[in-house]
Design brief:
Layout lengths: L1 E9 L2 E7 L4 E6 L7 H9 L15 E9 L4 H9 L7 E9 L4 E5 L2 E3 L1 H8 L3 E4 L3 H4 L3 H12 L2 H26 L1 H21 L5 H13 L1 H17 L5 H18 L4 H27 L4 H20 L7 H16 L1 H47 L6 E8 L11 E8 L7 E2 H4 L2 H16 L6 E5 L7 H15 L3 E5 L3 H4 L4 E10 L2 E8 L2 H13 L5 H13 L1
Parallel strand pairs: 3-13, 3-14, 8-12, 12-13
Antiparallel strand pairs: 1-2, 1-4, 4-5, 5-6, 6-7, 9-10, 10-11, 14-15
Helix pairs in contact: 5-14, 5-16, 6-14, 7-13, 8-12, 9-11, 10-11, 14-16, 16-17, 19-20
Length: about 550
Amino acid sequence: MLADITIQNFAIVKSLELEFSKGMTAITGETGAGKSISIDALGLCLGDRADANMVRPGEKRAEISASFTLEQNSAARRWLQDNELEDGDDCILRRVITKEGRSRAYINGNPVPASQQKALGQLLINIHGQHAHQQLLRPEHQITLLDQYAGHQSLLDKMATRYQRWRRTKNELKALIKKKDDIDAQQQLLEYQVGELNELALGEEEYQHIEEEHKRLSNSGDIAMTSQAVVDLLSEGEETNTLSLLTAAQQRLSELAAMDNHFSPLAEMLEEARIQTQETSQEVSSYLDQLDMDPQRLQYLDQRMSTIMSLARKHQVQPDALYETHQQLIQELEKLGHNDEAIEQLQADVDKQFADCLDTAEKLSKSRRRYAKELNKLITQSMHQLSMEHGSFEIQVENKAETHLSPLGGDAVAFLVSTNPGQPLQPLAKVASGGELSRISLAIQVITAQKVETPSLIFDEVDVGISGPTAAIVGKLLRQLGDSTQVMCVTHLPQVAGCGHQQMFVAKDTEKGSTTTRMYPLDYQARISELARLLGGSEITDRTLANAEDLLVAA
């Protein structure tokens, strides 16, 4: 629950420190005194948008700090643990706004985005504003109220997840079908390109081999002449050749080695040279014997190389990369060949996911209808208590998931009401007057608040348009709610204020051209005086004081 709040330089508040208690706290004051300022300031700590106009004129910054106790708020403690912001059983939210409009947010002293403050704030306090009865006319707000009362958040999460998955797959299918014409044209081009390359049937390293063979055949004449010249120089020259010279030299060294061992290694070296020369000559002679000088083979290689280079230019790659390009095009063609299969598979996925959505939407619809019956009874009873003796309330839940699916399911929810005997149930906006709508809204807020796990509730002038005996009943409803939940109620009705377990007064002071708002708790006698002011206006008599005390005693 909210333990205390400190406000510095916010709007017309110079400095304010407030402590809050369990039960129902009534907040009263003169019109324009700033009864809602503390709620606006608290809203900043709960992640509301900050504005430079919120800083008190003449000051550099505004600062608001709110402290909460979390003994009975497991959801908030779990959130703090999950976000590594836990600090015992207490939680402090702080917001700083500069006169330039910059804002900083803190949770337990840790700087955080305002969005995180907002996420945590929803687990700490639920604020019901003075315009809640206007929101009640909006269909989206009606379904939200019903869902809050039903408490089926896990179903809502499941519905949202399945809906998003279905929409995502459906969009993928739509995009794939849209691209089908382009894919068909691309497939035709690939089939033509792959057909050309299939006809070429180029091997993985074939181009390198062809290039080598073509080079050899193109130069076969020169190779033969030069090879023969080498053989002649090495061993077949008639007048002289290397082999005969080496043989003669080796013989002379052998003779010298017989006379001096110093020449033995040299003789051996020359013998090795003679053997290598002989082997080289034999290898070149063997190559000459096998040399192919087939002109038809050369012509074939010319044509094949020309085709390879032409296709390489066409695909803008080097000739030795054409084989890899061929394989890549084959793979692309295979993928495109599975396009129809992909469309069929995606369509099957879409149908399956849509069926899952319908299943969850039906479960959600059943849950809504179940809790709608509970609310129908409770709100109708509350309307009777709030001086609408013949009133009747009904929540209509119609499942339209087949044609109107959304992340919230497929239900069209409508709040119907009848306020007079014999009058049929009709939508709120068509039947209820302003005062009736305020009472129905208050009844719904009080009833649904009992099912919300948030430990603190704020009602900001939700009793507008209510007076007399009805106001007394409203006060009792809020006090009853305060027996189990911390309730703060900004009100101008003495019947409501008198039902508070405690009461705070808001006053506005003007001094030297500067306006300041202050708020302070009232003791028993001060409460009587304030209730008398609310009852009698500026003129307070013994009678109004007695009536004010009767209100406190009755509460």
